Amino acid sequence: xxxxxxxxxxxxxxxxxxxxxxxxxxxxxxxxxxxxxxxxxxxxxxxxxxxxxxxxxxxxxxxxxxxxxxxxxxxxxxxxxxxxxxxxxxxxxxxxxxxxxxxxxxxxxxxxxxxxxxxxxxxxxxxxxxxxxxxxxxxxxxxxxxxxxxxxxxxxxxxxxxxxxxxxxxxxxxxxxxxxxxxxxxxxxxxxxxxxxxxxxxxxxxxxxxxxxxxxxxxxxxxxxxxxxxxxxxxxxxxxxxxxxxxxxxxxxxxxxxxxxxxxxxxxxxxxxxxxxxxxxxxxxxxxxxxxxxxxxxxxxxxxxxxxxxxxxxxxxxxxxxxxxxxxxxxxxxxxxxxxxxxxxxxxxxxxxxxxxxxxxxxxxxxxxxxxxxxxxxxxxxxxxxxxxxxxxxxxxx
Length: 398
Hints:
Blueprint: E1 3-10, E2 14-21, E3 30-37, E4 44-49, E5 54-55, H1 67-81, E6 86-94, E7 105-106, H2 109-116, H3 126-139, E8 145-149, H4 159-162, H5 168-171, H6 182-195, E9 203-209, E10 213-219, E11 222-226, H7 247-255, H8 261-270, H9 273-278, H10 284-289, H11 293-317, E12 322-326, H12 327-332, H13 334-343, H14 353-357, E13 371-374, H15 379-397
Parallel strand pairs: 1-6, 6-8, 9-12, 12-13
Antiparallel strand pairs: 1-2, 2-3, 3-4, 4-5, 7-8, 9-10, 10-11
Helix pairs in contact: 6-15, 11-13
């Protein structure tokens, strides 16, 4: 009987999932991946098999309003497709692991309680990550689960890079810079020796550009600086998040405009960034296709902030050997890649326009002092690897 591993990435309105076949050696083969989105409003599900072909999926009922309902629908469909297969374990993306968790961890009641205390650090993500874990515990208490933390890759940040310049008595409660998108950065750092061995040990900036966006300065495979900070609000302009803004703006929202805590939270997490600037969409594809000036301004600002932060991270690295684009925008928008590389030409990046347009792995011209790359990320595979290693070692110790 085949054993399967399920990978879950649960958000406020979507549940991303992937199924891998468990095998003793090597990476587990991907059998399918999918997404149930529109939870609580107009839910719909899509999936592709391991080869990327679209699959027919059952329409979720309108009553799917939370992570539990979404999981029930997904597991019900998977049960019909993989009848007779055993469930080896479930791996979860958990955005925040706090200061303690630098490696994936087996889920327990004690761990869940600890992770709940971090909800104020990541209110847009953490509650939904944990809701998926709790839903699995309720429905399949016999199945082992693994929490994989997006903050873990950044535990190598130097002390100064972790520092938040506030009084020490406040910082003792976990007020520090953490960094996020760590599973993506960990994957890219892991494949560089194979994909681009000439830069793998060098000074690299990885640009994880999607609806959530950040940069990471990597030296010898380790994170030494990143644009996200105490929360996933900081750094670059994102789909609905503003990135770095003057803290006085937040004070003004409270004191000058009289907004409530909930109103400010909703504004910063859900109504700002590309959506806030354009008033049209938080999706880069929509903005690039739009002819409206507000859409162009949003894209211009996105490129401006990325190029600005690339300069800052190059200073942290003491120079730059390579720039790597990944995630939804980074992998799919040749125009955004081109504009960022052109704005960063002063660092020594010379783009190969044809390679960039066709989405080649190396998109810089021959002889470019700093090379540029397009490398797809795979957070689901990273979670599957962690889940396999941890559950296999736990079984061996039992």
